[in-house]
TrEMBL record:
PROSITE patterns referenced in this protein's UniProt entry, alphabetically: CYTOCHROME_P450 (PS00086)
Family matches, as InterPro entries: CYP11_CYP27_families, Cyt_P450, Cyt_P450_CS, Cyt_P450_E_grp-I, Cyt_P450_sf
Source organism of the structure: Psylliodes chrysocephalus
One protein family per Pfam: p450
Name of this protein: Cytochrome P450
Length: 473
């Protein structure tokens, strides 16, 4: 038994450990874990609570019960869930030269079954690193004014469609924003000037592609409740629907690329820049098609959440309008989008498989363990954000003191495998929000409260019923 009179002998050692931030790790088995069934963990509890569509809220509740770290089974896969921003930085710092993240099982099965090679999201190891470095130089570094020009011209198409729409009728927001997202990607691919030349010819393809991409994500979500391998093995209807929508979307995207590659050879867009650095056509198609599919949901639903929040907070909408009159590139505009992404990150979880053992929150995590970072939880935690449920763009004003931990909200991720389309997304969101707010008063007439549900990404639980009334000068 320890005798406290001996404490004086241990005191210098303990003080030295504290000063040098020495951490004593505990074993993986000691990580808190909710009660659950063998192998399945708490999957049954999740289904009873509402299913995969509320996974982010379900795990948020678990964090409140068990703390910033716990382990649980997501179906047959054991994972460590993490909601501490400082510890997340440790994970990213230790992600290695070739970071690995989780990929949808249904997509992996489709790719293998059809011998289909995908883009950056699915690439690994040196292949990923090689092409990621190339895309970093094109999309994240240097003079990116060509992206601004591309986003500007595609955004004007959306603004004109809204202007031509009756002010007394509800706009099909979901449909319009999907089309806008596809228009932006097309403009980025060929450049602003070439987009003006080709947009009318390929518009029917872009509209069809937008509808098909929507179905891909809808059908992917329907495969979340059952193992995709079983659905494919028994050729269930939901697998057939998924397979059909993926096949059509890939064919449409390939057809679109073929048309613009043959007939519209601009010198300012992404396609030209990739050819310029000698990326072969097959790899270009792989990367671009994934960019098209990935951009469909993410930016369109982020834009939907921005419009929803501004329509619910008319004083903020007016403050933003006033700021934009003074400065078209107002920091309040950027803060409005950052605050939207804090509350509604389209990807509420980030994942990594650390290549070596690491210590997180005092626990030893073995290499290749799935770590799920709960940015929905960290972004709504009162420890980092005062009144976290409030929509308050001013909290991001430099020197406000409201949040000293910017890493508590990581909608685009961080590190080597962060979102490659971040600059495109930020530019098109800022430009579009600015033009909408300057031209229209946005009102919402949904009677019921809108919830955020998870269907691959965070989206409104019901179609948004928005009315756009022209601003009177």
């Amino acid at each position: 038994m320890f005798n406290f009179k001996h404490f004086k002998y241990f005191k210098p050692f303990l003080l030295e450990c504290v000063e040098n931030n020495v951490r004593f790790s505990s074993s993986f088995e000691n990580i808190p874990s909710p009660r659950g069934l063998p192998l399945l963990g708490t999957t049954l509890s999740l289904i009873l609570a509402g299913g995969p569509s509320i996974l982010h809220k379900y795990m948020d509740k678990r964090h409140k019960e068990l703390g910033p770290i716990f382990k649980d089974n997501v179906g047959p896969v054991q994972a460590v869930f993490l909601a501490d921003p400082d510890e997340m930085m440790t994970v990213f710092a230790k992600e290695g030269k070739h970071p690995k993240h989780i990929k949808p099982e249904s997509w992996l099965i489709y790719n293998e079954k059809h011998n289909y090679s995908r883009g950056l999201f699915f690439m690994d190891d040196e292949e990923w690193r090689h092409y990621r470095n190339i895309m970093n130089k094109i999309l994240l570094k240097g003079n990116l004014s060509w992206i601004e020009d591309s986003c500007d011209i595609a955004t004007n198409v959306l603004i004109n469609r809204i202007k031509n729409h009756s002010e007394t009728e509800f706009l099909n927001v979901e449909h319009e924003l999907y089309k806008w997202s596809m228009d932006v990607i097309l403009a980025v691919l060929v450049g602003a000037k070439t987009y003006q030349q080709c947009s009318k010819e390929v518009d029917h393809l872009v509209k069809k592609l937008a509808r098909t991409v929507y179905l891909v994500f809808e059908n992917t979500c329907k495969l979340q409740l059952i193992p995709a391998g079983l659905a494919e093995k028994f050729n269930l209807k939901r697998w057939k629907n998924f397979e059909c929508s993926v096949k059509e979307s890939l064919e449409l995207a390939t057809e679109l690329l073929d048309i613009i590659s043959i007939n519209y050879k601009g010198i300012e867009g992404l396609l030209y820049k990739m050819y310029e650095v000698n990326v072969d056509k097959k790899t270009i198609n792989r990367i671009i098609i994934d960019l098209i599919l990935g951009a469909g949901d993410t930016t369109s639903y982020t834009m939907a959440w921005v419009l929803y929040l501004l329509s619910k907070h008319k004083h903020i909408q007016q403050e933003l309008r006033n700021n934009l009159k003074i400065n078209p590139k107002s920091s309040y505009l950027r803060n409005t989008i950052k605050e939207t992404l804090r509350l509604y990150p389209v990807a509420p979880f980030l994942t990594r498989f650390p290549p070596e053992d690491i210590t997180i929150c005092g626990y030893n995590i073995p290499a290749q363990t799935l770590i799920v970072m709960s940015i929905y939880t960290s972004g709504r935690h009162s420890k980092y954000f005062k009144n976290p449920e409030d929509f308050n763009p001013n909290r991001w004003t430099r020197g406000s003191g409201d949040s000293s931990l910017q890493q508590a909200s990581l909608p685009f991720g961080i590190g080597a495998r962060s979102c490659i389309g971040r600059k495109i997304a930020e530019t098109q969101l800022q430009m579009t929000v600015s033009k909408i707010v300057k031209n229209f008063n946005v009102d919402i007439v949904n009677g019921d409260e809108i919830q955020d549900i998870l269907e691959m990404i965070s989206k409104p639980s019901k179609p948004l019923r928005l009315i756009f009334n022209k601003v009177l000068d």
